[in-house]
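Sample pair:
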Amino acid sequence: MILGVILFVASVLAKVAARAVPVAVSQKSAPKIVDRLLNDLKVIEKDRQEALKKAIGNPTFKADSRMVELLSILSLTDSLFVEYRHYYEAMNTLIHSDAKSKAAHEAMETIKRSIKRSVKLNEIIKMKGEKLNPPNINMDGLTEFLQSLFENTLEKTDEIEAELRAEFYSSPFTKNMKKMPQIPEIPEF
């Protein structure tokens, strides 16, 4: 009796396995992890920019020169995050395109531009951050939300970076490029 049940379950599993889509096909049809993460990053970016715009327009914040300077730095950091997204999108395109294609060449140009802009933004953020005399901030709903959006952005960029790194080193580009082009670290202030 037990043997009959085991054989029945085995035959059902064999039929299901026979109808399953092969791994190579299912990976192509399934949305890529990096694409999903980039879409998540775009949503966070939109929310972050809206919250930053509200904070910059807040009369209480405008009255405090130290808060205005902090918001200026946060605005520059937002611009840096946008450059990171451009870099990640270009790396994703590069990894999934033919090395000699127009898309690959355009992606490499975008990567170079994003790295160059990121370095400049990084320098400005560090310089302004060193001079910053932090304001006394009463954490309200807006400032907490803004802080959480910046933290979520950092987490998402770490996830994207890890996925891209794994995909890059398993791609054919490692024949021509031994190391993945690096974007500078986000400065702390």
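Helices lie at 2-19, 23-29, 33-57, 59-63, 65-95, 102-131, 141-169.
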